[in-house]
Amino acid sequence: MYKAVATLAVAIFACTQLSNAAVPAAVGLRSLVGLGDPSWEIRDGNCTHAKITDLIYEEHVHKRRLPFSTRDATVEWFGDEIIYCVMAISQKFQAMGSTVEILRGGVGHNFVSLHMKSAKYHGLEYNIQIFGHYKR
């Protein structure tokens, strides 16, 4: 019985990996990953075809390091446009340990809330870009 369950689990895992590999666009879909998944950078949605004319929000977030502490920042955007791409690109090396996550909203919504946090003894620096268009 144990062998059958283990074999089934391996088969399900393999099918999941194959389906993710077959759909390259699924890598950035937050709907599959879920909110609250901190990572070094975010490129969520259809960012490969984002047009500069669709740029609805841009901000440079920079917090200097403080000894013995972490730094954090929250960026929120609300508007009439439907978001199709959210990019939060770190300007520091990945080894510095800062993370960013989407707390609420994002792709498919007309609002987004991003939270950035640095590692202890380090600052954070992100370029935030949000692309969207009016619902047709």
How does this model look, in words?
Keywords: Signal. InterPro entries: MBF2. The strands form 2 sheets. A 4-stranded antiparallel beta sheet has the order 1-4-7-2, with no helix packed on it. The N and C termini lie far apart (54 Å). It has 2 helices and 7 strands. About 20% of the residues have low confidence. The radius of gyration is 18 Å and the shape is elongated. It has 136 residues and is of the alpha+beta class. Helix content is 18%, strand content 39%. It has 2 domains: 29 residues; 100 residues.
Give a concise summary.
InterPro entries: MBF2. Keywords: Signal. Helix content is 18%, strand content 39%.
Kindly list the characteristics that best describe this protein.
4-stranded antiparallel beta sheet; 3-stranded antiparallel beta sheet; alpha+beta; about 20% helix; about 140 residues; single chain
